[in-house]
Write a structure and sequence with these properties.
Length: 310
Amino acid sequence: MTSKKNIYLLLIIILFIAFAGCNNTSKKVKPHKKEPFICNGVISLTSTEFISPDNPPFKHSEFSAMFPKYKIRDIENVKTLLPAHVPDLNLELNTCSMPIPTLASMRKKELTRPNIVSLEDAGNMFISSKKNMALVPTRTFPDLLKIINGVIYYTDEFSNLDLVPDETYTIKTTGSDVIQKFEVLLNAPKELGDITINETSPDETTPVITLGKPIDVKWDGAGYGDEVIISIKLNGPGISWNIQCRIKDDGTFSIPPEITNQLTIDSSISSTEMSIERVRQISFASKGLSQGDFSFVVKTNFLIEFDENS
């Protein structure tokens, strides 16, 4: 009898120990890993020409550089807050996107409140070509301190540096506590040359496109750049869409009729803007940066008209 009591007592003790162990809150919990920050370098030179049959060509150029530091979960917010000079297209080469209703797509994106985006300092920045060199001034964002702090490097054609295509540019920095000094060189692509849309030169006559028909695009200097981006954007009362095509720089491309057939226009809209961009981009590395990209974009803007019988 005594042995049975001892066995029961032993079982009770074992169960008690097991139960106490399951509820022991003093066990060490593995610390949650902190989400790492990403710091990218985005350097861009853009040379834009506006052509029209009614006015002489107008050119505008600008340079910008920024080094945003953010967490991975904030990447979409960062893309929204910071201007993108080179289209980040999720497109296969030699394909076009279907017309995207801009207003509708904006409604679908519900942006979460981001952490503050830090635009890191890379020290003094100099941009030089064969002709001259200039210190790139910095700008801050006093109106956006709740979401962005730091600096952006920026200059345009009003500076003493002539930013033109078909030139070699070198970027040098003195570095900072966050980003080590670096030097990167890029050979800018040539201009797009003579452009025709459906055999019409936009600087002589406004090209006319017909819905449901192909749009034949031609330009000069095939093969000078890495790729070409064609964009058509329409903004009107109750109508807003855009088309983008990512293509090889081989001098010719036809936007297929199945794309233009999806376009919708209003009778009050007779024309819209079209652009062609030649993009050349290289990557660079520096201690403190997750990734660095330096690009030169040669862009031509002009108007197109819609066929009234479309």
